[in-house]
Design goal:
Blueprint lengths: L11 E5 L2 H4 L12 H6 L17 H15 L3 E5 L2 H4 L8 H16 L3 E7 L15 H17 L5 E6 L1 H9 L11 H25 L4 E6 L4 E3 L4 H22 L6 H7 L10 H5 L5 E5 L4 E4 L4 H6 L2 E2 L19 H13 L5 E5 L16 H19 L4 E7 L18 E4 L4 E4 L1 H16 L4
Helix pairs in contact: 3-5, 6-8, 7-8, 8-9, 13-14, 14-15
Length: 451
């Protein structure tokens, strides 16, 4: 099926990971605790009771993992830097932590792989009082961004400030299923604002140190369909999209929040200051879009749903097939998202920075035949190819994920990797999806036209 996929010869093929999910080494090299360490220590928070203390042991095994990338033909690698590893509680650089990333960057360079770094992938330092509910955290993020620009910036051609700030704000402070586990609607909107403020301050801080880095942000925009044609369901789907999209994209482009979101922040509206919008709206060199599935919304019935303005209908698999985590496989949604966002905002060049499926197929006789993941990737890459052919400026694709890893509140119960990880032995096994992508990339490099 790979012969039907056509991409420009300049198209970037990459794989993605995140520090807390793969690194481990939690007590080595002066690394400090994060809010996810704290969350994992609370009984009942993680599905399988696990944590990220060892994870995939990438902290020690990064040469093996980089060699795997090179073997598969990846020439781009998206990873995150652990704030808790590179900066101490007083805001000073931690040489041991910075040296780890220098060694990783050295290894990538030796294998001809270009790094694509994300500064914040949810692992906020525990010692920052109030976390994202405290405006000061946005300024501490700017300090951290400036430190990385000084120490590693000459090795990082493209940097994203934040990954999926919606998850940090709303899963972490409204729904309570991500760290730090809060359930306060007004607080979640404060956190969302402070996250975008941190992005703006971080871009300013980085550019004050280095002007030659491509800077952007990674979002997970929402595609929400109404459960029915009823007015309440249609309104609920709109609210779900406003929360996921407008709350973040509007300030990135100098626009105020929609009135519905301003109403929900209520008594804490004063925490959004008049000068903030100009700080948030820094020029973007790129935007990363993460896409996995859609949601279906219905009218709220409970008090918490009413405060939110919507409720989501769990997928049943009756309409669309599901991945092993229970998400619908809906590749045309990728096209709908890109078209929708491009109509509403003046987007810079786009990278698809995450896309993938939970397929928990195990290893049997040395093989991992993850056929569902292969079908998922093929369908989404076909949709992506059609978008590029239609003229959308999409310049790269990063599969999530290189490795099976700690999947946040799901622990190790869900496997998104194209490389199987045996967590008892840390043995890596290439899955069929990895070999399939290898073939796609080889054919793209040898035969793809410039579109």
């Amino acid at each position: 099926m790979t012969d039907v996929l056509s991409f420009p010869s300049s198209f970037e093929w990459g794989c993605a990971t995140a520090a807390f999910q793969i690194e481990g080494g939690a007590h080595e090299g002066g690394k400090l605790p994060s809010i996810w360490d704290d969350f994992c220590a609370q009984p009942g928070r993680i599905k399988d009771g696990s944590d990220g203390l060892v994870a995939c042991d990438h902290y020690h095994r990064y040469p093996e993992d980089v060699a795997l990338m090179a073997r598969l033909g990846f020439r781009h690698y998206r990873f995150s830097i652990a704030w808790t590893r590179v900066m101490d509680a007083q805001g000073r650089p931690n040489p041991a932590g910075l040296d780890f990333y220098r060694r990783l960057l050295d290894e990538l360079h030796r294998h001809g792989i270009t790094p694509n770094a994300t500064l914040f992938h949810w692992d906020l330092p525990s010692h920052l009082e109030g976390g994202w509910l405290n405006r000061d955290t946005a300024y501490r993020f700017a300090d951290y961004a400036a430190l990385i620009a000084r120490e590693l910036g000459d090795r990082l051609p493209r940097v994203a400030t934040l990954n999926e700030p919606w998850c940090s704000a709303f899963l972490g402070h409204d729904q309570g299923v991500f760290a730090p586990g809060g359930q306060d609607r007004e607080a979640s909107l404060v956190a969302a604002h402070h996250l975008v403020l941190a992005h703006g301050l971080g871009v300013q801080a980085w550019r004050a140190v280095r002007a030659d880095t491509a800077l952007g942000i990674v979002l997970n925009p929402e595609l929400s369909d109404p459960a029915s044609d009823a007015a309440g369901d249609v309104a609920a789907a709109r609210m779900a999209e406003l929360e996921r999209n407008e709350v973040f994209l509007n300030p990135l482009f100098g626009r105020e929040w929609p009135a519905e979101m301003l109403a929900q922040i209520g008594t804490r509206a004063h925490e959004r200051r008049p000068q903030d919008l100009a700080i948030c709206a820094q020029p973007l060199d790129f935007i990363g879009l993460n896409y996995y599935t859609r949601s279906v919304a219905r009218a709220p019935t409970s008090a918490s749903e009413t405060r939110r303005g919507y409720a989501l209908v769990p997928p049943t698999g009756a309409e669309l097939p599901l991945t092993d985590i229970g998400w619908e496989i809906y590749p045309s949604g990728l096209g709908r998202v890109v078209r929708n966002l491009s109509r509403q905002w003046p987007l810079p060049p786009i990278w698809i920075t995450e896309n993938g499926a939970a397929d928990n197929t195990g290893v049997s006789h040395g093989e991992c035949r993850d056929a569902m993941r292969v079908r998922y990737l093929q369908a989404h890459l076909a949709e992506l190819a059609s978008l590029i052919e239609a003229g959308f400026d999409i310049r790269g694709y990063y599969v999530w994920s290189l490795l099976d890893n700690f999947e946040w509140a799901q622990g190790y119960s869900q496997r998104f990797g194209i490389v199987h990880v045996d967590y008892a032995t840390q043995t890596r096994t290439l899955k069929h999806s990895a070999r399939w992508l290898q073939t796609v990339m080889q054919r793209s490099a040898s035969a793809a036209p410039d579109l």
